[in-house]
Amino acid sequence: MARTRLYRNGVLESENFPAAEVSDYLGDSTATVWLDMCSPTAEDLATISEELSLHELAVEDAVHQHQRPKLDRYDTHAFLTAYTVRLDTSTGVLDKYEVAAFVTPRALVTVRKDENFDIEEVVRRWDSASELAKSGVGFLVHGLLDYVVDSHFEAVQALDEQIEALEDLVFADHADYRELQRRSLRLRKSLVTLRRVVLPMRELANAVMRRDLHIVDDAMMPYYQDVYDHILRAAEWTESLRDLVTTIRETQLTLQGNRLNAIMKKVTSWAAIIAVPTAITGFYGQNVPYPGFEHAWGFWASTIAIVVISGTLYWMFKLRDWL
Q1: Residue 52: left (phi > 0), alpha (psi -120 to 50), or beta?
Q2: What is the pLDDT of residue 166?
Q3: Cβ-based neighbours of 156, under 8 Å, separated by 6 or more
Q4: Do residues 25 and 31 lie in contact, with contact meaning Cβ atoms separated by under 8 Å?
Q5: Number of other CB atoms surrounding residue 198 within 10 Å
Q6: Does residue 295 carry a pLDDT above 80?
Q7: Cα separation of 151 and 84, whole Å?
Q8: Exposed end of the chain (fewer CB within 10 Å): N or C?
Q9: Beta strand 11-15 with 31-38: parallel, antiparallel or unpaired?
Q10: How many Å separate Cα 318 from the centre of its chain?
Q11: What is the average pLDDT across 236-252?
């Protein structure tokens, strides 16, 4: 189903009218139209593309999924692609939802790839700032980008909390290293996905704010600057978290190596202590006469040698903190 809205002189005049009527308002300089489509086919976009003179490459990109976040300029319109994201805190997996938009002087056409993109939240942002609707299409594009960037910021914040919890697990006394490795790799993968979504938004926002594109007027420029500031903060935060996950992983491997070294020192020390009685008793177990053979003092001499040498080794290893 398609959703529509008509603003005239900055006032919401009509909504949910048939998509076929969009062209009736395009010639009115006081009107701004919004049309939303979910999972349309090329045939679904054919009619509106003729009315708005949309470029065939832009229509093709709107239908196909997994486009890079970008802003393309054509003679009659601009075409942008962006993603909202959501982090599953129970698994550490990041999901992303794509939206495309055709930006014309008097109309905004949004194309969602599925229902997971919450267009209702975008509409609520428009309604909460209705006093800015006089800015036309620039007002509508701002609400869309503001929602997209806020989802990035929320995901970065959630990832930050997940990584802090991961730090606590690294230094736990009885850490589950298998689960720790699995979760750190999932978070790293989510950060890579988020980075691919967030970093191109800087270029996209810069392009939208260009004066020669005539999307953003003077009234909306401060609001776009605020969105751009959020983009920069999210991008810098994502980069720092990416480095932090790598550091945590290296720290985990270092701690594992240190603990393994400590265990190996203890095992080696006990093996050296146990080797003493084994060697002495093995020597006296030969089928040949030895000093003290068949004499009581031979037994006591070997026993005392075992106790003294083993005790000396234990004291030396303990002194060096090997036991």
Answers
A1: alpha
A2: 84
A3: 194, 198, 234, 237, 238, 241
A4: yes
A5: 26
A6: no
A7: 6
A8: N
A9: unpaired
A10: 47
A11: 85
The amino acid present at 158, given as its one-letter code, is A
Q: Specify the pLDDT at position 126.
A: 94
C-alpha to C-alpha distances, 286 to 190, 279, 293, nearest whole angstrom: 66, 11, 11
Q: Please provide residue 264's backbone torsions phi and psi, each rounded to the nearest 5 degrees.
A: -65, -35
Distance separating alpha carbons of residues 84 and 120, to the nearest angstrom:
13
Distance of CA 302 to CAs 94, 172, 274, Å? 68, 46, 15
Does residue 158 or residue 272 have the better pLDDT? 158
Task: Give all strands of the β-sheet with 70-73 in edge-to-edge order.
Answer: 11-15, 3-8, 31-38, 107-112, 93-103, 78-88, 70-73
d(CA 237, CA 223): 21
| Average pLDDT, integer, range 143-149 | 96
DSSP for residue 73: E
pLDDT at position 164: 85
The residue type at 27: G
Would you call 43 helix, strand, or coil by DSSP?
A: helix
Of 149, 140, 161, the closest CA to residue 85 belongs to 149
pLDDT per position as a tens digit, 79-97: 999 999 999 988 889 999 9
Gap between the terminal Cα atoms of the chain:
73
Give the separation between CA 155 and CA 87, rounded to whole angstroms: 6
What's the whole-model pTM score?
0.78
Nearest residue to 105 (alpha-carbon basis) of 64, 136, 142, 61: 136
Taking residues 253-276, what's their average pLDDT? Answer: 80
In terms of Cα–Cα distance, which of 44, 4, 40, 43 is closest to 24? 4
How far apart CA 253 and CA 153 sit, in angstroms, is: 30
Partners of 171 in the beta sheet? Answer: none
